[in-house]
Amino acid sequence: MEIKVFIDGINCGGCATGFENRLYQYGVSRFDIDFATRIATITYDENDIDAHGIIAIIESFGYPTTLLPE
To answer: Minimal CA–CA distance to 5: which of 58, 62, 60?
Structure first.
């Protein structure tokens, strides 16, 4: 499954490292972000985590996150 999310306030790779590593532990297989738009494309196994779980992990690091429509 793939989702796109807007991550408010993120502006560098170092900022994403903490939650990116955590996401990989929970079924995320790909995390790509365009820092200019702050939109991330995330591929994950829906048997391990859902979109709300992904957003919760990112937000736990202090970045308000919005699920974008497909």
So the answer is: 58
Average pLDDT, the chain: 95
**5: number of Cβ within 10 Å:** 19
C-alpha separations of 65 from 57, 68 in Å: 10, 9
What pLDDT, on the 0 to 100 scale, is given for residue 62? 94
Each as own residue / partner, the long-range contacts of residues 8-13 (CB below 8 Å, 24 or more positions apart, any chain) are: 8/38, 8/63, 8/64, 8/65, 8/66, 9/38, 9/62, 9/63, 9/64, 10/35, 10/38, 10/63, 11/35, 11/38
pLDDT of residue 15 exceeding 90: no
pLDDT of 18 reads 85
Query: CB–CB of 57/5 below 8 Å?
Result: no
